[in-house]
């Protein structure tokens, strides 16, 4: 199954993505008398039931995605884990020492934007990068889970653009939290793709694009710490809850400037695009 969040009737609400178009969960409830949560975060917390897809088909009120405004999948996850230097080539870009365990950090939800929203380059930084990443969305509480079981706790995957004020980070690695947490520095969407539609997550190719030009891409299978290992590792740090996001690292960070169009592209999962503007 695939899900999105779109703006309709003045609010952001969940939709089921089907081949003929989008079906709003609110339409399913209205026309079939259901009581599904109409917010995607709450749907994840409740469990993304396959019955939703059947209800979407039965409802049949398909909307043209081209006429809809997509938002971020949701606004307030309990936490966002970011992973640095998960592809060896990216470590070389930064002339960084390659970590022997996941190099992770946490981002606040004030960073969240959605497809088409503006990435704002803050006056505090003169060198911001955009980084295409695969997002892993947790589907049920997990604590100290094994790597073998880890993906059974995942609701699905999404596209992410993660931003870094690289000049701040390069001044001192202890400034990582600050460099990652400016407003608008985390875009995710446009769809949540459930794990049943991704038979081999390691075969996905993630690409960072800018202004229609590929900067760098790589296979998830070339990560040092693949998704199952990241879920397991972080579940041994703290409990992971439904809707928590792990942004799994980028194959390459591209410097972005005013007027650019940054993109994350993942084969079979679509494209996430955000324009870039310098703010005073």
Keywords:
about 280 residues; alpha+beta; Fumarylacetoacetate hydrolase, domain 2; 2 domains; five-stranded mixed β-sheet
The CATH homologous superfamily of the largest domain: Fumarylacetoacetase-like, C-terminal domain
Provide the CATH top-level class of the largest domain: Alpha Beta
The shape, in one word, is globular
What's the architecture of the largest domain, going by CATH?
A: Alpha-Beta Complex
The profile of the biggest β sheet is: 12 strands, mixed
Rg of Cα set: 18 Å
Number of domains: 2
- Please mark out the parts with pLDDT under 50 across 5 or more consecutive residues, or reply none: none
Beginning-to-end CA distance, first to last residue: 42 Å
Secondary-structure element string = EEEHHHEEHEEEEEHHEEEHEEEE
Average predicted local confidence, pLDDT: 95
Strand content: 35-45%
Helix content: 10-25%
Alpha-beta classification: alpha+beta
Q: Please, how many helices?
A: 7
Count of individual beta strands:
17
Q: Which fold name fills CATH's third level, the topology of the largest domain?
A: Fumarylacetoacetate hydrolase, domain 2
Describe this structure in words.
The structure is a single chain. The protein is built from seven helices and 17 strands. The longest helix has 9 residues, at 51-59. Strands 1, 2, 3, 4, 5, 6, 7, 9, 10, 11, 14 and 15 form a twelve-stranded mixed β-sheet that branches. Strands 8-17-16-12-13 form a five-stranded mixed β-sheet, with no helix packed on it. The chain is 18% helix and 37% strand. A hairpin with a 2-residue loop joins strand 1 and strand 2 (11-18). With 280 residues, the protein is α+β, with helices and mostly antiparallel strands. The chain has two domains: 2-70, no CATH class; 80-278, Fumarylacetoacetase-like, C-terminal domain (Fumarylacetoacetate hydrolase, domain 2), CATH 3.90.850.10.
């Amino acid at each position: 199954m695939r899900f999105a969040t779109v703006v309709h009737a003045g609010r952001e609400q969940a939709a089921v993505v089907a081949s003929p178009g989008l079906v709003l969960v609110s339409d399913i409830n209205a026309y079939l008398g259901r009581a599904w949560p109409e917010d995607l975060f709450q749907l994840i917390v409740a469990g993304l039931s396959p019955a939703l897809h059947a209800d979407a088909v039965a409802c049949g009120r398909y909307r043209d995605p081209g006429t809809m405004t997509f938002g971020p999948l949701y606004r307030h996850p309990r936490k966002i884990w970011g992973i640095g230097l998960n592809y060896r080539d990216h470590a070389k870009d930064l002339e960084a020492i390659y970590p022997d365990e996941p190099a992770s950090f946490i981002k606040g939800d004030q960073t969240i934007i959605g497809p088409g929203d503006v990435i704002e380059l803050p006056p505090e930084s003169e060198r911001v990068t955009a980084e295409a990443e695969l997002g892993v969305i947790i589907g049920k509480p997990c604590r100290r889970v094994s790597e073998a079981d880890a993906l059974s706790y995942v609701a699905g995957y999404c596209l992410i653009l993660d931003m870094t004020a690289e000049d701040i980070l390069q001044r001192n690695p202890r400034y990582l939290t600050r460099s990652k947490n400016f407003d608008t520095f985390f875009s995710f969407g446009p769809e949540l793709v459930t794990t049943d539609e991704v038979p081999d997550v390691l075969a996905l190719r993630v690409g960072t694009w800018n202004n229609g030009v590929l900067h760098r891409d790589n296979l998830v299978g070339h990560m040092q710490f693949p998704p199952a290992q990241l879920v397991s590792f972080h579940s041994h740090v703290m409990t992971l809850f439904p809707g928590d996001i792990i942004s799994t690292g980028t194959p390459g960070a591209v410097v972005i400037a005013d007027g650019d169009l940054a993109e994350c592209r993942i084969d079979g999962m679509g494209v996430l695009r955000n324009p870039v503007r310098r703010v005073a």
